[in-house]
Amino acid sequence: MSTRILTLLTCGLLAAVGATQCFAADDGSAQALHKKHCVACHGTEVYTRETRTVESFPALKTQVRRCEMALELDWTDEKISAVSQYLNNRFYHFKP
Ligand code: HEC
After folding, report:
1. Which of 25, 40, 79, 86 is the most exposed place for a label (fewest CB within 10 A)?
2. Which residues contact ligand 1 via a Cβ below 6 A?
3. Are 67 and 40 in contact (CB under 8 A)?
4. How many structural domains are present in the chain?
5. Residue 28: its pLDDT value, please?
């Protein structure tokens, strides 16, 4: 199952219980989150350098989670997904 479909399913479930942040987790807020928390140690050049370590979308999500945990940001899965998708759209371009 693709990540996009999974996200949609998760969003549907959340919508059913009245959570709306799913729909706010668009590229704009993911970009804002990234800008706020993720450029202190490395800039965006780590995402495009020749020796980048992330080679797939699941690996990207794992790495986002790893950095996020190191920062103790306590992000929800939705935020992790949104930022991973933002980085994928903008820099990595993995096929889902
Ligand atoms: C405390 C410092 C620090 C912060 C802040 C940080 N990272 Fe990282 N990040 C690292 C280090 C160290 C690496 C490994 C760099 C290397 O291999 O040269 C890394 C690597 C990465 C990579 C892999 C790059 C590649 O090689 O493909 C991604 C993706 C990433 N970080 C995402 C994030 C995101 C998203 C955030 C915000 C939640 C974030 N980082 C914030 C330290 C940080």
Report:
1. 40
2. 34, 37-38, 40-42, 46-47, 52-54, 60, 63-64, 67-68, 70-71, 83, 87
3. no
4. 1
5. 75
